[in-house]
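TICKET: design request
STATUS: open
ATTACHED STRUCTURE:
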């Protein structure tokens, strides 16, 4: 991941999440389908914690599923869950 061109107030550069090519993420395990519930949508971070033990991979998971923003999901939609190893190896 390349550093951002923008710095914070301490002149620190942070990784630029917009430069990540999520399309280059290839699963090494079989994908598991997950039907989104209203509870998942209200607290997506809880679903991530339950499935992966971490909340940090939500953007990667949504992007992999072609969802630009969680607000586009509705209860009953299905997304594919990657194995934790695939998400953590990618990041």
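STATUS: resolved
RESOLUTION: sequence designed for all positions
ATTACHED SEQUENCE:
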């Amino acid at each position: 991941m390349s550093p951002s061109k923008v710095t914070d107030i301490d002149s620190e550069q942070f990784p630029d999440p917009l430069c990540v090519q999520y399309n280059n993420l290839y699963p090494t395990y079989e994908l598991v389908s997950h039907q989104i519930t209203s509870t998942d949508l209200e607290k997506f971070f809880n679903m991530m914690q339950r499935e992966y033990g971490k909340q940090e991979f939500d953007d990667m998971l949504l992007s992999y599923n072609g969802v630009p923003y969680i607000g586009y999901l509705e209860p009953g939609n299905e997304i594919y869950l990657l194995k934790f190893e695939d998400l953590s190896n990618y990041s």
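CLOSING REMARK: Strands lie at 3-7, 13-15, 32-35, 78-81. The two ends are 9 Å apart (CA to CA).
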